[in-house]
Amino acid sequence: MTIVPKGYRFGVAAAGFKKADRNDLGLILSIGPAVAAGVFTTNRFQAAPVLVCKELLAESPVARAIVVNSGQANACTGDEGLANCRATLEIVSEFARVRPEEILPASTGVIGAQLKMDLWASAALKLGGSLGRATAMDVAKAMMTTDSFPKLSTRSVQLEGGEVRLLGMCKGAGMICPTMATMLGFVICDVDVEPKAWREMLSFCADRSFNALTVDGDTSTNDTVIALANGASRVRAESKADLALLRACMLEVCQELSYRIVQDAEGGTKVAHIAVTGAKSHPQAELAARAIGNSPLVKTALFGCDPNWGRIVAALGRSGADFNPMDVVLKIGGILVFEKGQPSPEDLDALLAPCMRHQDVKIELCIGPGNGEFTLLASDLTKRYVEINADYRT
Amino acid sequence: MTIVPKGYRFGVAAAGFKKADRNDLGLILSIGPAVAAGVFTTNRFQAAPVLVCKELLAESPVARAIVVNSGQANACTGDEGLANCRATLEIVSEFARVRPEEILPASTGVIGAQLKMDLWASAALKLGGSLGRATAMDVAKAMMTTDSFPKLSTRSVQLEGGEVRLLGMCKGAGMICPTMATMLGFVICDVDVEPKAWREMLSFCADRSFNALTVDGDTSTNDTVIALANGASRVRAESKADLALLRACMLEVCQELSYRIVQDAEGGTKVAHIAVTGAKSHPQAELAARAIGNSPLVKTALFGCDPNWGRIVAALGRSGADFNPMDVVLKIGGILVFEKGQPSPEDLDALLAPCMRHQDVKIELCIGPGNGEFTLLASDLTKRYVEINADYRT
After folding, report:
1. Antiparallel, parallel or unpaired: β A271-279 and A8-13
2. For the purposes of burial, counting CB atoms within 10 Å of the CB of B217, is it exposed (0-12), middle (13-18) or buried (19 or more)?
3. Burial class (CB in 10 A: 0-12, 13-18, 19+), A51
4. Do the beta carbons of residue B233 and residue B353 sit within 8 Å?
5. CA B23, CA B14: separation in Å to the nearest integer?
6. Alpha-carbon gap, residue A389 to A267, rounded angstroms
7. Rounded to an integer, what distance in angstroms lies between the CA atom of residue B225 and that of residue B218?
8. Is A182 a catalytic residue?
């Protein structure tokens, strides 16, 4: 059975934003005020719900609910989009019996179209009706777009004062894929925690999970991760030890969810774990890992199960990271492939063939004597990805 | 008939580096010393022929010949690769009757394998035998890898002292695609010109042609453009006016060749002309244009003939370029699509459908009141691209 944090209720409804008879509206409601934190897209074009969320969280670090819709992104919709977003919070607040400013909005779907406001009123009524009967899984399903499976992760952790529970859910099948706009993640917990500690925890975990993966290198206008902590467990996390335990638990949840995003990458068949170590700094290591993980040539080779290390090395070479080519050591699946500027003299194609068949492929690059490191999860690039994205709207 | 600059001879041979019975070795020989300039890959892993070329050009700005092979890149081959590269110059020099240090080498093919030195001696003999009988087109064909057609461009220009002729050739079907390593370009001319002026001219033209296109954003270990000017026309380019005319002519040749590369992009069906204006600086405009031209989502939409402007705007938003979203004006095929933060109220899908069918698609973005501008040629991303690159070695 799924571990569900105390003091939350869930609602879903089929509003018909894109398709009929499919739940596309979800609500996560906390029975009492919850400490709220969020991390958002860095794209300069930010969707209306992102702008509204940021505004609400700047005013108060406390929220009661998250409302999420799929099918319409409400991005690049100007002032009308902002007004629509605020109006949806008014509508939902009536049925959820919380104040509009206590609801954090999130949207995902096609960019540029205005919200179909006529559908919201009847949908919110259904949403209110389902509150308490729907499950977290129902909400995770309602926010799917091109996702092929819903993404949930739960944990409990024993703190000094007792047990607290975490539940995370997310959607995303292209990181970060603007038109399907795109990565949404919610983490709810019943711990009692200070807003500042909660915010720092979320940002620490997001950097090591949702911000450490790539499907296609595109960053959406709607990316949002929100974390709520409502204190319903009556367990307070305050000591250094408790906060560390809680953070480790949140990190596990976030990393499990982000692994699922890459596993469910549009058309993807592989999850590459690209670990760069020995860089002059962490950002340098990240630069190198991202150049490799976003290289179409590396990604197509992964799809073809081709141990084409030359493409990995060449992507590293153009990454902008600062290193000496003679220092670089590359291993694939634990097998030494390249060092001192040239390939290992083994029959690499034969040695590497079995590990290229796995869904998970480990690529380890030590690029020097430094302490900088970064690990990126990356999907492959497949014919199916092209099909999905060439035909998405037409 | 092709315009061929005076005082050059061409040779080709089938060495069997990758396939039998296909010319894979080419020689361009100047009858006298030619002023030589080169621009090279910025990848940190530089192929042996790139290192040798740079060394030779640093020693002397004069050369007699260019030797180019396809099938083997001689990249990531360590000290042995460098020694092999120098040995091939010795071998070729005997048959071409020029000194080894007067020959500039270029290679393209799979990374990581050592040159098949046993094949070079007999191939160089054939190369010598064909000298004078082969044409520039034969050399352009001999350096093809995944190219589907050879790429030649010629021009003549009237200077104060008389007519001079330029001929450019290149290979490349992924810019810049490491395993096929990748973009090679040669421009030969019979003008009499100073080395410094010639170098500056090449670098000016390369920045506005070969460095202003993208197929997959990958930069090869072997990219090389070499320009020779042998003075055989006995026309000297020295006055400002003559140098300007010559530069304009070279730019036309380089731009025609780089258009052909994008047109012949692996699996490509489209050439997008992405013109960014109004940026705070040229590098800012380039940042924006490259983010759009390299976005897999923009590229798959182009392939699908989908006027998905949301993806263009979202790629701009994450490009790192500094601009105000409200200033952005986007036109596709001359049609206003997006301004003041929202789409034009027209039926855009209907209006844009015809221009998405053309091979050439014009994307114009004005992102502010600045003077920075950059135009990038970009290919689309297709199922065929994935097929070619997933199956390249296997």
Report:
1. unpaired
2. buried
3. middle
4. no
5. 4
6. 10
7. 17
8. yes
Query: Considering only residues 334 to 353 of chain B, which have any Cβ-Cβ distance to chain A shorter than 8 Å?
Result: 338, 340-343
- Per the CB < 8 Å rule, is A178 touching B315? yes
CA distance B94 to chain A (A): 30
Residues 211-250 of A with CB under 8 A from B: 216-221
- Would you say A8 and A189 are in contact if contact means Cβ atoms under 8 Å apart? no
Within the 107-166 window of chain A, which residues sit less than 8 Å (CB to CB) from chain B? Answer: 110-112
pLDDT at B180 over 60: no
CA distance B393 to A307: 9
Per-residue pLDDT tens over the stretch A171-227: 886 644 433 346 788 999 999 999 999 999 999 998 888 887 776 666 667 788 899
Helix axes B48-59, B78-96, angle to 10 degrees: 60
- Fill in the amino acid letter for A148: S
Is there a contact between A259 and A377 (Cβ–Cβ < 8 Å)?
A: yes
Could you give all domains of chain B from N- to C-terminal order, each with its CATH number? 8-263 (3.60.70.12), 271-390 (3.10.20.340)
Residue A371 contacts residue B371 (beta carbons within 8 Å)? no
Residue A247 structure tokens: 């953070």
> ipTM, 2 decimals?
0.72
- How many DSSP H helices and E strands does chain A contain? 11, 15
What residue spans of A143-239 are helical by DSSP H?
A: 195-207
Residue B392: count other Cβ atoms within 10 Å of its Cβ: 21
Q: What is the pLDDT of residues A325-352, one digit of tens each?
A: 999 999 999 999 999 888 888 888 888 9
What is the model's pLDDT at position A181? 45
Question: Tokens 């199956």 identify what position?
Answer: B391
- Verify whether the Cβ–Cβ distance B76 to A338 is below 8 Å: yes
Hey, what are A242's tokens?
A: 């408790």
For residue A133, give both structure tokens: 């009967």
> What distance in Å separates residue A21's CA from the closest CA in chain B?
27
Q: Of A297, A381, A393, which has the smallest distance from its Cβ to B179's Cβ?
A: A297
User: What does the alpha-carbon distance between residue A268 and residue A216 come to, in Å, rounded to a whole number?
Assistant: 11
Question: Does any CB of chain A come closer than 8 Å to the CB of residue B255?
Answer: no
Query: What percent of chain A is helix, strand and coil (3-state, nearest 5)?
Result: 35, 30, 35
The upper half-sphere exposure of residue A140, i.e. CA atoms within 13 Å in the direction of its Cβ, equals: 21
* Phi, psi angle pair for A117, to nearest 5°: -65, -30
- Tell me the residue type at B226: I
Yes or no: say if A147 and A174 are a contact pair by the CB < 8 Å rule: no
* SS3 state of residue B63: strand
Rounded average pLDDT over B212-225 = 74
Residues of chain B positioned with their CB less than 8 A from the CB of A393: 306, 308
**pLDDT, tens digit (0-9, with 9 covering 90-100), for A96-107:** 999 999 999 999
By the 8 A CB rule, do B328 and B309 touch?
no
> Which three-class secondary structure state does DSSP give residue B319?
coil
User: What SS3 class is residue B139?
Assistant: helix
Q: What is the largest CA-CA distance in chain B?
A: 70
Q: Is the pLDDT of residue B20 over 50?
A: yes
Distance from CA of B349 to the nearest CA of A (A): 10
Pair A242, A248: CB distance under 8 Å: no
Task: Look up residue B211 and give its DSSP letter.
Answer: G
Could you list the active site residues of B? 182
CB–CB contact A392 B181 (8 Å):
no
Distance of CA B309 to the CA centre of its chain: 29
A181 touches chain B (CB under 8 A): yes
